[in-house]
Amino acid sequence: MPFTVLLKRLNQGKRHSHELFFHYMHTGQLPKTVHSIMFVDSDVEFAWKRNRRSMDHLYHGLIKNPSIGGACGEIEVMHWYQNPLTMTQYFEYKSNQFLAKTAESWFGMVTCLPGAFCMVRPKALEQVLNVYLAVTTTIWNKNQLDLGEDRTLTTQLLQGGWNTVYVQNAVARTQVPSTLIGLIKQRRRWINSTVVNMVILLRHVHRLKALPLLLALGIELISSFTLPTAMILLLYDLAITAGLHATVSLAIVILWIVIIMTLSLTTRIEQVAYWFHVSSIISATAIVLFIILMIQNYEKFIHKGWLELVVLLSWFGIIIVSSIIHRQWFSVLGVVAPVAWLLLCPTMYIVVPLYAVCNFDDLSWGTRGA
How far is CA 327 from CA 16, 195, 200, 322, 324, in A? Predict the structure, then answer.
């Protein structure tokens, strides 16, 4: 397969890369017969000893149907065993891809073609290029276009009538933040741009055959706000179960939230990193205590929270079955990564979303150049 590599010395974002590609093509420096454009981040590997054909798989996944405008593959976490943070991201990446992306691809509507490793049909990209390269003027637009470049492009391809697919056997691996502050800054950008683009997608993409998926995406958008609330109520219930008075439990939870929000609104996160680490350790300890209490008082928990237990076990069951079907069983049954994810749930689903909301006007990339 003949290909041309466009390597930039200065990182100016993916939109600049796309603009540069068409500039070179229109000026004759690149052939106009190009069938696909592949985007890869500098910290991503897509070919190694036991994985030499990812680019080929991705290409054939794109061109197999003329209605496909973009395709992405699986992205693995490199050196996932470094610490609980990288283990958590490993579990997230795996479960998201063999569950969410597989389901989305079945409807031809993968909602995010990661700019770290994906391939786009030039005709499809050129069709949306003017809108995609629009100048941003508001905070909403900047979160949409500047911070959510890959998700924005995907949304616009779907608006243009193109399908987007997931190619499971096209595998790449990437580095992920290994520090709590690096992870929070990255997820602030991801969460804010995802919410903006999800609202746009649900407003403008209407496909009858994908109605179940659109309903699921609507629920996912709502859960961006309800899940932190559910986690907070869980910690509140834990405090009461541990023997604290309801008023004291409520005061502790509210004080924790107020502190996180105050620090997020008023101070650079690097200057208060200590408090975010303390919060993460305390909340992880709370999860351990909750598990111990649940085991010790299992009859009470089954009687009181049987519905929550059924939902939780069903969710884990779906993940386990899916991981076995997609031959990714180690990511779940290996236990270590899911346990790390469970302990960091309060951080991932309370602290990180709160920080993101409080910094919706932060238009810095967060991790670029770091």
Answer: 37, 31, 34, 8, 5
Phi and psi at residue 171, in whole multiples of 5°? Answer: -115, 135
Q: How much is the pTM?
A: 0.88
Query: Which of 47-56, 83-92, 206-215, 307-316 has the least mean pLDDT?
Result: 307-316
pLDDT digits (tens, 9 = 90+) for 167-182: 999 999 999 999 999 9
Say how many CA atoms lie within 13 Å of 213 toward its Cβ: 21
**Range 60-86 burial, b when 16+ CB lie within 10 A, else e:** bbbeeeeebbbbbbbbbbbebeeebbb
CB 192 within 8 A of CB 147: yes
Q: Is the pLDDT of residue 370 over 60?
A: no
Tell me what percent of the residues of the chain surpass a pLDDT of 90: 48
Name every residue whose Cβ is closer than 8 Å to that of residue 49 and which is 6 or more positions away in sequence.
Answer: none
Question: What would you measure as the largest C-alpha separation in the chain, in angstroms?
Answer: 74
Query: Of 184, 354, 348, whose CA–CA distance to 258 is shortest?
Result: 354
Two structure tokens written together for 48: 């190694």
Residues 6+ apart with CB under 8 A from 78: 45, 173, 174, 175, 176
